[in-house]
Amino acid sequence: MQKYVAAIDQGTTSTRCMIFDHQGNIVAVDQKEHQQIFPKPGWVEHDPLEIWERTQEVIGNALRKSDILASDIAAFGITNQRETTVVWDKDTGKPFYNAIVWQDTRTDQICNELANNGGMERYRSKVGLPLATYFSGPKIKWILDNVPGVRKATEKGKALFGNIDSWLMWNLTGGTKGGIHVTDVSNASRCMLMNLKTLDWDDEILRDLDIPRSILPVIMESSINYGYTQIGDSQIPIAGDLGDQQAALFGQTCFDAGEAKNTYGTGCFMLLNTGEQPVESKSGLLTTLGYKLHQQKAVYCLEGSIAIAGALVQWLRDNLKMIESSSEIEYLARTVEDNGGIYFVPAFSGLYAPYWRSDARGAVVGLTRFVNRGHIARAVLEATAFQTREVLDAMEKDSGVKLKALKVDGGMVVNDLLMQFQSDILNVPVVRPKISETTALGAAYAAGLAVGYWKNLDELRSNWGKDREWSPAMDPDRRKELYRQWKKAVTKTFDWIE
């Protein structure tokens, strides 16, 4: 039996390859950042060829660092930044345009025009999503309508669309020499084009957006052998594909309805497993596919998406130069007792769940002469915890499920101050697993299950272990007052863009 499973974790700011053993321990990791391209305010792009180059580099480096032979890898899983949209030429393998990133807001006009007939909720009953700049569908339409030559290429059957998972899968399995053009249900459910019930592209929505079905990938399960990638003399199956947040849910082994996880990355994403039935949200959440295992029913989730979490810390570091590295924020925030009365609402690209206000922009409110850098650092961390509380409130309302504890992962969970405040403001325990790299782990699990490296979900559950737990220790009146003030601060960001 092969000894390891590898995962390609293609994120918003970097690409990683991680190799795991049978217990889910990390054996090797390599990571490389890629360029963030901002051509205009609100526009965010990546170079898909750079991402493909980085992917090849990190795979090679991870194998080299660990002295593992490619033949020792049982399978690769892919997990990816979701909604980020690439349209490429299948004959040359070259993208027609840069990848349009999930945070990009250039499609607001397309969304507004679609909303003229049926409002922002026009397609929610079919796709589980509101009309928003966040999703891939409007981005595909933008490329087809605005990039010269793409429509023509589409008519000739030369153009292919994919989120980053499809782009990497196509390249890994041969590219112009027979690369496979597929995606999984979790990624497809983020396009605003897939019907939640049929798990197929919806013809009516494709017609409305003028997107030909021919450019879309085939929708498949999340854990199945899609095809092979060649490394040296070895042919290795690619057998797992999950959008990053669904991969984290899978890596946290939230396999039962009512289990939830929150990932603290560039943005912040809470997913609640709702079982085999989609739950339509009345509170501004997204209904999304969790995963689909081989020959089993699909598992659905409610998701609350927060656009700016770790990105706010990066902003403090890069734009304001208040800290030199992201890890310094905790030290700076601990120099003060509290937030000094200020609240930072990071609506840099509008507000996501539960508001969905693309007219909102960021604000710091409650400033006085008393406020210093420490207070700002603290308000930056607290913003993530407050936004998470808003999402959790919406989830409990929609699902009727009371959360008992929150499993957490992602880059920010090393921050003890944030995790304690999160527990305080939610009034539930916050639990960090031993392996906090659950996104890559989830993709590895999906791939390993497909090729028999792991037998079943129970085997994965037995791998999960707790590293640390934070319990609420805040006075209830104080919790209530801080949250009330936060809600008030959020209202100050509305209607900024006219």
Topology:
Layout: E1 4-10, E2 14-20, E3 26-33, E4 45-46, H1 48-66, E5 73-80, E6 85-89, E7 99-100, H2 108-115, H3 124-127, H4 136-146, H5 150-155, E8 159-163, H6 164-172, E9 182-184, H7 185-188, E10 194-195, E11 200-201, H8 203-209, E12 218-220, E13 223-231, E14 234-243, H9 244-251, E15 260-264, E16 268-275, E17 286-291, E18 299-306, H10 310-318, H11 328-333, E19 343-345, E20 363-365, H12 373-399, E21 406-409, H13 416-426, E22 430-433, H14 438-450, H15 457-463, E23 466-470, H16 476-491
Helix pairs in contact: 9-14, 10-12, 12-13
Task: Write up what this structure looks like.
The protein is an alpha+beta fold. It contains 16 helices and 23 strands. The protein has helices at 48-66, 108-115, 124-127, 136-146, 150-155, 164-172, 185-188, 203-209, 244-251, 310-318, 328-333, 373-399, 416-426, 438-450, 457-463, 476-491, and strands at 4-10, 14-20, 26-33, 45-46, 73-80, 85-89, 99-100, 159-163, 182-184, 194-195, 200-201, 218-220, 223-231, 234-243, 260-264, 268-275, 286-291, 299-306, 343-345, 363-365, 406-409, 430-433, 466-470. It has a seven-stranded mixed beta sheet with strand order 17-18-16-15-21-22-23. A six-stranded mixed beta sheet has the order 3-2-1-5-14-13, with helices on both faces. A two-stranded antiparallel ribbon has the order 4-7. β17 and β18 (299-306) form a beta hairpin. α9 (244-251) crosses α14 and α12 (373-399) packs across α13 (416-426). The model has no long low-confidence stretch (mean pLDDT 93).
